[in-house]
Amino acid sequence: MKRAASTPPPMHGNEMRYNPATGRWVIYALSRRQRPRELIGSREGARTELAYDELCPFCPGHEQDLPPILLEYGRGDSHRQIRVVRNKYPALTPEGDLKRVCQGMYMRMEGYGHHEVLIESPEHNRQIPVMTPEEVELIIEAYHRRYLKLIGVQKNLLVVIFRNYGRRAGASLMHPHSQIISTGVVPGHVREMEYRAQGYFDQWGSCMYCDMLAEELSAGVRIIHANRSFVSFIPYAAAQPFEIWIMPREHKAHFGDISAEEKTDLASSLHAMLRRIQERLNDPDYNYVIHSSAKYRSDEPQAHWFLQIGPKLTTRAGFEIGSGMSINTSLPEDDAAFLMPDPLPEKGAGNASQE
Amino acid sequence: MKRAASTPPPMHGNEMRYNPATGRWVIYALSRRQRPRELIGSREGARTELAYDELCPFCPGHEQDLPPILLEYGRGDSHRQIRVVRNKYPALTPEGDLKRVCQGMYMRMEGYGHHEVLIESPEHNRQIPVMTPEEVELIIEAYHRRYLKLIGVQKNLLVVIFRNYGRRAGASLMHPHSQIISTGVVPGHVREMEYRAQGYFDQWGSCMYCDMLAEELSAGVRIIHANRSFVSFIPYAAAQPFEIWIMPREHKAHFGDISAEEKTDLASSLHAMLRRIQERLNDPDYNYVIHSSAKYRSDEPQAHWFLQIGPKLTTRAGFEIGSGMSINTSLPEDDAAFLMPDPLPEKGAGNASQE
After folding, report:
1. Edge-to-edge order in the sheet of strand A15-19
2. Edge-to-edge, what's the strand order for the sheet holding B24-28?
3. B177 included as an active-site residue
4. Which of B1, B7, B16, B295 to probe the A interface (max A CBs under 10 A)?
5. Which tens digits make up the pLDDT trace of A58-77?
6. Catalytic residue of the set B124, B177, B225, B291
7. Can you say whether residue B242 is alpha, beta or left, with left for phi > 0 and alpha for psi between -120 and 50 degrees?
8. Please, are residues B267 and B133 in contact by the beta-carbon 8 Å criterion?
9. How far is residue B84's CA from residue B69's CA, in Å, rounded to a whole number?
10. How far is it, in rounded angstroms, from Cα A355 to Cα A342?
């Protein structure tokens, strides 16, 4: 791919960009721009060096305290072992009813859904960057199996797979783990993104995300990593510094359709990106989440699943709450250049893994 | 008002509620419910005891380093003095142009807008809870004057007034201050709330917020404070613990229409709520923001301005990012009861101030 100047022709002073996928304007406050190094270290809580913590419920030896194991597998040795259990303190439970109940002018329902924890390793400190790509692939495999299982349950309308790393990102336990939540409603936030993609399709006759991918490959200034099946880039209107989208090259609306080859390549992309963040940004707290279509939209031509990574480097404050707009002190092109350590990939070299 | 049992009849297990104003579902995770005391102390950075900090740019004596003063007034003594200046590191600047520029499939524009700082007191540690209600009224007065000034500028389509308190809430300086930002676009987030209110009006023929106020007064289990002009309550589907809405009793779409009497009463309500939060929740970081109509909607029958306070007690994590839903571990009725210290107000006593 072509590597142009890191920043597009400057505008007068500050700049605003519109993200057509989310419908959100983002303010790039260049007068308060921070150098990447000044963003670094926004994390909370010490990282552990210990492979075993006797107080950790996810470390081996506490099996009797865990809820029943829903899925467990590995590659023969305990270093490559995955466990999925029901969350001991679930936000949603499968016993709930979807019936809506009026309460004055308001409405409520029971908290129906599934809330699972995926314990990624028996080792307390074996976070993704120090795993082998094969171990990361086991995690993706577990995501896929649980996704198919949960979306197959009639009452589930959405399955959200996510990982919170560090206290600022909402994690209370440091043991390597992800979470999976299914819901019996489609949240307004998800519907809005669907509507925007539908409107784009109605206007242009193509998938907005496929077009975005083509645009990014052509511009070549926000891409950090690419392999056979995935392209990792900072979106044009990233809402926060070093936000990364890992986009499958193949158009598929829902994560359940991921192929075996794609699982291998997603593991490789995710591993590369989390390593890059850890090394370059001093191991910040982060969240990642897999955006996939709501049920019944899984075959539609405008929907396209992807994985979004958000390092916790800044704070959502009053203006964001009131307007829904973000103030980002860092331009996507500069963030991409900062995270791009390798020799620049050549145009057309996108089919080979960069790592 | 009637004070019913603190919690409505329980549902089976967890509960979900729908907020018709935001279109967001909220999950009440009662199995992971925390007692208010466990939420306390979620703040970052020590509070200062000093009335003067020689390194603080907002303390007296640094006037020559401040941008030109846009508004300055008080009541004769320096303890009651307000200053509004242009933000030295503005996110948006009035020199910008509103012209949209295409960049491949994307779009951007210059960062047009105004970004002002309202220095609330010459004293470095004179936060709102230790002010007199009269001093707080001076702040509201300054909000009002700047709001009218900014919304009167032709290119401004929205004015957002907000206050970030503490580092977790995004404040970098502790000196008492608020911020005002005007934008030349109406963000999607604001339009969505307008559409929801419009849909409600089209269906029921009344303002959703007026109906909400009537509902809250009738239920009487989520109200914390009421006076002549304002009712302060935890919304039925509050997205986070101890979220407070201060709602004007009189239907007006935009903050610019606030009356003199309402300014006095808003100062009293805001003062009471911030004091209550400080005392009961151990002085947490918080944001508040005034939600007011976008330009050209200022006379419409479905829009209703209000002030929203959000203490920073929890963390937005992967599930919230992916789904737009919130997980709240605390029921609004219980939060309201925890913040309600006074003898319970009688039904019909709503016209008298509780403080």
Report:
1. A326-328, A24-28, A15-19, B106-110, B101-103
2. A101-103, A106-110, B15-19, B24-28, B326-328
3. yes
4. B16
5. 998 888 888 888 998 887 66
6. B177
7. left
8. yes
9. 6
10. 9
| Residue A64: Cβ within 10 Å count | 5
Radius of gyration of the CA atoms of chain B, in A: 21
Q: Which CATH class is domain A15-45+204-351?
A: alpha beta
Tokens of A309: 């990574």
CA B208 to chain centroid, in Å, comes to 19
Cβ neighbours, 10 Å, residue B320: 23
List of residues 6+ apart from A199 with CB closer than 8 A: none
List residues bridging with B119 in a β-sheet.
B83, B177
Partners of A163 on chain B (C-beta within 8 Å) are 318
Burial-class residue B129 by CB neighbours within 10 Å (0-12, 13-18, 19+): middle
Tokens 């209370």 label which residue?
Answer: A172
| CB distance A313 to A284 below 8 Å | yes
Residues from chain B that touch A325, judged by Cβ atoms under 8 A, are: 183, 187, 189
How near does any CA of chain B get to the CA of A287, in Å? Answer: 5
Q: pLDDT at position B172, please? A: 86
What whole-number distance in Å separates Cα of residue B232 and Cα of residue B222?
Answer: 9
- Which token pair is B102? 């295409």
Chain A residues whose beta carbon lies within 8 Å of the beta carbon of residue B235: none
Rounded to the nearest 5°, which phi and psi values hold at A265?
Answer: -75, -35
Give CATH superfamily name and number for A63-183: HIT-like (3.30.428.10)
Query: What CATH number belongs to B15-45+205-351?
Result: 3.30.428.10
Instruction: Please count the residue pairs, one from chain A and one from chain B, whose beta carbons lie less than 8 angstroms apart.
Output: 267
Numbered ranges of CATH 3.30.428.10 in chain A? 15-45+204-351, 63-183
Complex ipTM, two decimals?
0.88
For the segment A3-27, what is each residue's pLDDT rounded down to a tens digit? 444 445 556 567 888 878 777 788 8
Contact between A351 and A228 (Cβ < 8 Å): yes
pLDDT for residue B350: 43
Neighbouring C-beta atoms of residue B309, cutoff 10 Å: 20
- DSSP lists the bridge partners of residue B165 as B286
Across A38-157, the runs of DSSP E, i.e. the strands, are 69-74, 81-86, 101-103, 106-110, 113-119
C-alpha B226/C-alpha B246 separation (Å) is: 9
At which residue do the structure tokens 């270093």 appear? Answer: A79
Q: In the structure encoding, which two tokens stand for residue A337, read together?
A: 């250049």
- Predicted local distance difference test score (pLDDT) of residue A78: 54
Q: Which residues, other chains included, contact B63 with Cβ-Cβ below 8 Å and sequence gap of 6+?
A: B69
Per the document, the length of chain A is: 355
